[in-house]
Design goal:
Its main location: cytoplasm. This protein has about 350 residues and is α+β, with helices and mostly antiparallel strands. Helices cover about 40% and strands about 25% of the residues.
């Protein structure tokens, strides 16, 4: 198996605005409702997103609220609350960033993650871990697509919705895209679709069999890009100014407690997970931080900087254990514990002692 498989992970939150509303309004779960631009003026509002129950009636994003109400008169309309959605989005992105990979926040509910340095099994482990963590910690569902390149990964993601997971291996790419409509290519709008239709090109397979010079004459340089995509060549790069400064893991305990063995068992699990992430990104850490949140939501942290770099799970757990012990008190219960490594450096540039 190739040690560097070149895969990109693409994540899309399912019906994001609607799912956010269900978090604070659980009574909406399973019911037809829509998030709209103006719930007070049904003649001017536009549907931002519709719950999956509402979509069964033909209601979709971009539809005038008045039209949606004609399709389903009892539709419950909620005015958009972008500040709230952005807050939840930030929580999603922080989970992704905690894995330590370069990432691009494509939109408020989509992200592309650069796992090109990992092999296939590592990519799968990271992607499944992110999906599970978002589900467990935020109670939200997402769909993940994995493929060789950002464009193909998004197409895989689109094909797997909702709440899906699709891994397109390199040798499967051509067959996967062959029968996709040209409009399924991210960035291809109605205007480009219309021009291609004039050449009797409706599917990506048609592009594969076309003349690249004819495409360039019709669409300019974009014609060349589409031709390369049809041949399985995805050159779109992940654009991000984010560089991992730390990797963290934290989790609520099963119940509030000050039982040291219980807390240490949780800390050990988190330390192993964080150290695995360090190694998978080919980093080394030098600083360690532990966090304790008590039952009353007050929080304490302690940090230590080592005299050397390491990627060891044992070192991390040993040092974190010593840091956390003074924070466990007889008279106050612990609700959540966490561990973070920082002062990261590339493993190729340092000698580790452990």
């Amino acid at each position: 198996m190739d040690s560097k498989a070149g895969y990109v992970v693409y994540l899309d939150m399912d019906s994001f605005f609607a799912s956010c509303e269900q978090l604070r309004h659980p009574e909406l779960i399973g019911k037809p409702f829509a998030v709209v631009t103006d719930s007070l003026d049904k003649f001017r509002g536009v549907v931002q997103t519709a719950s999956y129950s509402a979509r069964k009636f033909g209601i979709h994003s971009g539809m005038p609220t008045m039209k949606a109400l004609q399709l389903y008169p009892n539709l419950h309309c909620i005015k958009e609350d972008y500040d709230y959605y952005e807050k939840i989005s930030n929580e999603v992105m922080e989970i992704i960033k905690s894995y330590g990979f370069k990432m691009e926040a494509v939109s408020v509910d989509e992200a592309a993650i650069d796992t090109t340095e990992l092999n296939e099994s590592q990519v799968l482990e990271v992607a499944k871990g992110i999906k599970t963590k978002i589900s467990n910690e935020l109670k939200l569902k997402c769909t993940i697509g994995i493929a060789k390149g950002k464009t193909f990964a998004k197409m895989a993601c689109d094909s797997a919705k909702p709440n899906g997971f699709l891994f397109i291996k390199d040798y499967e790419t051509i067959e996967f895209i062959k029968y996709k409509k040209v409009s399924d290519i991210p960035g291809v709008g109605a205007k480009t679709e219309g021009k291609l239709a004039g050449l009797n090109i409706h599917y990506i397979g048609d592009i594969q069999n076309s003349n690249v010079q004819v495409l360039v004459g019709l669409l300019g340089e974009y014609g060349s890009e589409l031709y390369k995509l049809s041949k399985g060549i995805d050159e779109e790069k992940i654009v991000s100014d984010y560089t991992a400064l730390s990797i963290s893991r934290e989790k609520n305990l099963y119940e509030d407690t000050n039982d040291i063995p219980t807390i240490m068992a949780q800390l050990k699990e988190l330390s192993e997970d964080a150290a695995n992430a360090v190694r998978s990104t080919q980093k080394l850490y030098k600083s360690i931080t532990v966090k304790v949140r008590y039952y009353d939501f007050t929080t304490k942290i302690k940090t230590k900087t080592l005299s050397y770099y390491s990627d060891s799970s044992d070192v991390l757990y040993s040092e974190a254990s010593e840091l956390i012990k003074p924070l466990i008190k007889d008279n106050i219960l612990v609700r959540r514990v966490g561990v973070k490594v920082s002062s990261l450096t590339d493993s190729a540039h340092q000698h580790k002692l452990f």
